[in-house]
Each structure stands twice: as structure tokens, then as C-alpha cells.
Design brief:
With 127 residues, the protein is an all-alpha fold. It has three helices and no strands. It has one domain. The relative contact order is 0.15.
Length: 127
């Protein structure tokens, strides 16, 4: 199986665009179930597969997951979204999808800016 070779900045931007255009609302195929961040969007290495064709350990988002959660069923749901330590896993219990999308969107914007700024510094040979 091929490792996810997409560029991380591309993955984060696509996820942000997905949130801003479609969001994680209810699925048309299964309206009783809400889509979950990362797992039910194009950023997931298994998006579109009816089963997990690739292990999560091959996902680009794993770099944002603390090592103790790398073997979780859905590791990306343990990404720390803010300084308060909120994760998708914990926030899904609240069942407030608007709040969850806002927090994930804020996290994505912050990571995109961090990566762009770090690359800009590398380009000019600083630090």
C-alpha cells in the first residue's frame, strides 16, 4: 500500500476548504449520522473507501497526533485543537457540530499559517 504522499499544506488547505464549503453536517446517505472531521473528508487517506484500505499510520495528519494516540482507532481525532487541549474525540460527545467545525477550522488556519511562515523563513535563509 502506498503511503500518503500528498504535501501537508495541500492536505490542510483542502480540509479547510471542505469545512468552509460543505462542512461536516449530516450525510445524505445516512442522515442520522453526522460526518466526522478528517475521517469523513478528502483529507483522510481512506476517504471514499467503504473499508480502511490504508492504515492510519500512513496518514499525513499523524504528525499532529501525540505518540500515545498513534494506535487509536481514529488517531486524527486526538489532535489537540487548542491550548485548552480540546480534541475532536472529546468534542464529538458534546454533539455541537457548529462549534466543532469552528475549532477545527481555527486549528487548520493556525497550522497553515505556521507552515507558510516557517517556509518563508527557510526561503530567505533565516533561522
Amino acid at each position: 500500500m502506498a503511503k500518503d504522499d500528498r504535501e501537508i499544506l495541500e492536505v490542510l488547505r483542502e480540509e479547510l476548504q471542505f469545512i468552509e464549503t460543505e462542512g461536516y453536517g449530516r450525510s445524505a446517505r445516512a442522515p442520522r449520522f453526522a460526518k466526522t472531521p478528517f475521517q469523513n473528508s478528502p483529507s483522510c487517506i481512506n476517504y471514499g473507501y467503504p473499508y480502511r484500505a490504508h492504515p492510519c499510520t500512513e496518514c499525513r495528519l499523524l504528525n499532529f497526533v501525540s505518540p500515545e494516540h498513534h494506535t487509536a482507532e481514529v488517531p486524527c481525532h486526538f489532535i489537540c485543537l487548542n491550548e485548552a487541549g480540546e480534541t475532536i474525540e472529546a468534542m464529538e460527545v458534546e454533539d455541537n457540530h457548529a462549534k466543532l467545525e469552528e475549532k477545527v477550522g481555527n486549528w487548520l488556519r493556525a497550522r497553515i499559517v505556521e507552515i507558510e511562515e516557517a517556509r518563508a523563513l527557510q526561503t530567505i535563509g533565516c533561522c
